[in-house]
């Protein structure tokens, strides 16, 4: 074996043995550096005879190139190994759970969500959303709505009153959102289409009655609307609200002071299980009251009942929420138990729309 | 209103099945609430005969019976009834039978060591009456082994309808039959005319002394019957009363109850021998009282209409008779009363005294005035049929009021209001069947409602009658025409703001609560409420007495309830109304939120990534700013004041205002004293926002946001630290820095607050970085120096602070 072959074998072994980039650099300096073994050999070329040089020149240059290539190749390997080692050392247990995002932990109350669902449907039918105060006058809550003198609803055991004022006026907490009908008819020209969501109050308390609850009233006033439209409107509304293909309704004649004719509406449902299924089964469940606005109510708002006509209905928002989403106890709506709110509440970004479906 | 099927068929000739009748009742507005058939629960009981009755070996009060059930071998029954005797025919319940009055299913028992294979039942055990003095004792001819329900005729469904207050005419079975007949479900049977020959003197006179208020008792019909023999009423009548839940008393009393339900005509019967002098209808006097037929004593006053004699009050007119002048088995001479009373007076007295009777129920809705004397005749006839005696002439004090109601009725109203296409003849036929008089042949007819329909006054009432009878299901569903091809925006600014605030807060991890509008007085007072005009006169409980002046009391109480349930870290908010007075403008819409424990924006409680600290005033400030942003208010455009209400920590709270007078929001830690007063544990922070205090957005001609111009030049940042007195608000310093050169300075950011070594006592160092955005040319060092000098000068002028060396 020639000197050069021996040298190359040694260098190759040194390169292979270099375990780090630093060690490899040492090998490079020791071989290709200014005073490196290969460089030293290269320096001897100048003193050689042309014949010798002709032989040794290519041999040394070849050696130099091979060594440089081997170092570069080794360097790549070591770099990769170093990166792999670093990555291995950087490993994190990605199964560690994160804190939930705030948008996932907050909830919208079912009453708000359902009210928005109702408004989305009725807005599409051309209804505006009207509101009025909770503290009302006897005139707007009863008299203008054709409640006769001595009607039981005007008594202390049904209605919350405030103390009588010096001028004899006695304010009350509205027992329905119907006073807003009067307020609207007295201030706006027909045609009118409004829905009136809001808080209402009655002296009542059990599993399905609370002294405060939410009602949505609807009112249509123009010159042509009749009971056929009332039926059509409520059918379309209930279908949209319960997100079913079909609902079957039963309109029963009934009585309310502020409508004539008056009706109660039952919806066909299946009550055999724990939850009520609307649009199935053969049971009837009362869901709302409605009728043609009473001529006296129209007169009380300055409208001629021979010219203007229309219908009104009233329904419990909380009750609709219970039917659609399966809550059993109305009282829990107002307890602010976070367990209940998280169970029945809605995600903040799930805004009801007809386009995307009212609910998920 | 309750009745039985067979009772209905007394008045209605029909082949309709029970199901058809029930369906029709509901569809004509007489909603069926419940149907029960005693046969369904009593069907297993059979008539049995006691063969032997021997003393129980181990119990004095018990007997051991051998009973023939008609089913082969006699069975042994242990029985405690005093009337259990050999030969008695009664009702036997065998093991496996369900006994409704006891709510048990029988099994073979052992009573004091003697086996018993069934029981002999009392009426109460079968829920036939309250009778429990002994077991049922049937006549000698009762057939052993036959089902008791068949023998006793109990296979008669009991129907209960929910009567709306406008329909007094259907508070009697006859009226219900009339409605069903008019709807086409059979024919109404014409009642027999009652004919009575007077054979006794009336000998009693009745005066009405109500001054000018004749409507309180316009008419008082009565008749004396002499020589009656009062006793139990006939079985068929007792059975009907029991079926609808009434207790038979004696024939005379049962007749009045029967006619109350059969004809909707309440009556009263006085024992004439217990009446002293004339009967006077008058107002009560303070101090007077009456022992009613229910045995209770009632105090009357000047607002109550009573029937009195020389002894005092004998009856509460139209509501309840008195015990003293009531009829018993010794009664021989009676005065039968059929009067008319004012519904309003009846309702008021009934409510005041807390008396609910079947008579009140009818009189306060309106009894048919025209039937007064007919009702008296029918009652008299039944009294004579059951008890014998000689009747006097019928007498009438006062006058039966006449109705002059006539409605001009265009037939077209049916189409206009109900959308029903019916011929004139069809409409006329329906109304006539219901007893309305219809005259005229043109398109507009005159319609007179019958005397038994006080609820019908106008055209729309007639439309309802027609629609009711034809069927609401015959009205075709019609789509409401669209008003706009594309639905319009319908929500008001306030409604939109609330919706946005709600979603923004929920997205910050808060749960939306809905709490009561009324709160305890003590809580209201702490939050600035409790005014006299906001106190309910009749709260449902003392915890719900005052209209809330703030959403916070409800939310704070809710937080504590959750903490008590094991959930101390809650973030709650509410969007709702508060009350600063009883005027319409005093009701304000607010948004409020609270955070308790460690329920901060980033999460609550412990976590490997870092535990959450106790909630802080800045958590509340962040919520307030988020809510403001959601309703379209830029928080950095608002001024921060430190005058939040007293229920906030005075040093850790603020008010966000648009000008000194217009407060948009409060935020802060809840005052420790407030927590103590509410008996609530913190830490608790809160914010409140007035939804409608922010100005209405201006209507803009275009929705364009304007062109976006990206600056060509790089912004420059410079840091400054100022030493200022501790009571200098950061905002003041930042505002001064920002205002130092409005053209160049685009942002000022506070990045450090330091107190301690190197900074004098009572002062702190505030470090800001200021961003300069050149627009025309790159800033030179001199330019920057000039701006810096302006900033230092402005801050010094505004805060007295000096640049830290």
TrEMBL record, chain A:
GO BP term (any one): phenylalanyl-tRNA aminoacylation
User: What cofactor is this protein dependent on?
Assistant: Mg(2+)
Which terms are listed as keywords in the entry?
Answer: Aminoacyl-tRNA synthetase, ATP-binding, Cytoplasm, Ligase, Magnesium, Metal-binding, Nucleotide-binding, Protein biosynthesis
User: What enzyme class is recorded for this protein?
Assistant: ligase
The entry's localization annotation reads: Cytoplasm
Q: Which Gene3D superfamilies does the protein's record reference? A: Bira Bifunctional Protein, Domain 2
Entry GO terms, CC: cytoplasm
Query: Entry's CDD domains?
Result: PheRS_alpha_core (cd00496)
**Predominant subcellular localization, coarse grouping:** cytoplasm
Q: Which family does it belong to?
A: Belongs to the class-II aminoacyl-tRNA synthetase family. Phe-tRNA synthetase alpha subunit type 1 subfamily.
Q: What InterPro entries is this protein classified in? A: aa-tRNA-synth_II, aa-tRNA-synth_II/BPL/LPL, Phe-tRNA-synth_IIc_asu, Phe-tRNA_ligase_II_N, Phe_tRNA_ligase_alpha1_bac, Phenylalanyl-tRNA_Synthase, tRNA-bd_arm
Instruction: Indicate the segments forming the Aminoacyl-transfer RNA synthetases class-II family profile domain, all copies.
Output: 121-348
Subunit notes for this chain?
Tetramer of two alpha and two beta subunits.
* Species this protein is from: Pseudovibrio exalbescens
The UniProt annotation places Mg(2+) binding at: 260
Instruction: Please give the PROSITE patterns that the UniProt record associates with this protein.
Output: AA_TRNA_LIGASE_II
Q: Which reaction does it catalyse?
A: tRNA(Phe) + L-phenylalanine + ATP = L-phenylalanyl-tRNA(Phe) + AMP + diphosphate + H(+)
EC number(s) recorded for this UniProt protein: 6.1.1.20
Record protein name field = Phenylalanine--tRNA ligase alpha subunit
Question: Which residues fall in a coiled-coil region?
Answer: none
The protein's matches in PANTHER family, at most eight in alphabetical order, are given as: PHENYLALANINE--TRNA LIGASE, MITOCHONDRIAL, PHENYLALANYL-TRNA SYNTHETASE
Offer an example of a GO molecular function term for this protein: phenylalanine-tRNA ligase activity
Q: Does the keyword Thylakoid apply?
A: no
**Keyword presence, Magnesium:** yes
Q: Give the note describing cofactor binding and stoichiometry.
A: Binds 2 magnesium ions per tetramer.
TrEMBL record, chain B:
- The entry's Mg(2+)-binding residues are 455, 461, 464-465
What's noted on cofactor binding? Binds 2 magnesium ions per tetramer.
Q: Name one GO cellular component term.
A: phenylalanine-tRNA ligase complex
Q: What is its EC number?
A: 6.1.1.20
Entry superkingdom: Bacteria
Tell me where it mainly resides.
Answer: cytoplasm
Q: Which UniProt keywords apply?
A: Aminoacyl-tRNA synthetase, ATP-binding, Cytoplasm, Ligase, Magnesium, Metal-binding, Nucleotide-binding, Protein biosynthesis, RNA-binding, tRNA-binding
Q: Which reaction does it catalyse?
A: tRNA(Phe) + L-phenylalanine + ATP = L-phenylalanyl-tRNA(Phe) + AMP + diphosphate + H(+)
The Swiss-Prot or TrEMBL record lists the needed cofactor(s) as: Mg(2+)
Query: Sorted alphabetically, which InterPro entries does this protein's record hold?
Result: aa-tRNA-synth_II/BPL/LPL (IPR045864), B3/B4_tRNA-bd (IPR005146), DNA-bd_dom_put_sf (IPR009061), Fdx_antiC-bd (IPR005121), Fdx_antiC-bd_sf (IPR036690), NA-bd_OB-fold (IPR012340), Phe-tRNA-ligase_IIc_bsu (IPR045060), Phe-tRNA-ligase_IIc_bsu_bact (IPR004532)
Q: Where in the cell is it found?
A: Cytoplasm
The FDX-ACB domain covers which part of the protein?
711-804
Q: What class of enzyme is it?
A: ligase
All residue ranges annotated as the B5 domain in the record: 402-477
**What HAMAP family does its record include?**
Phe_tRNA_synth_beta1
In the record, the note on similarity to other proteins reads: Belongs to the phenylalanyl-tRNA synthetase beta subunit family. Type 1 subfamily.
Protein name, UniProt field = Phenylalanine--tRNA ligase beta subunit
Q: Organism source for this protein?
A: Pseudovibrio exalbescens
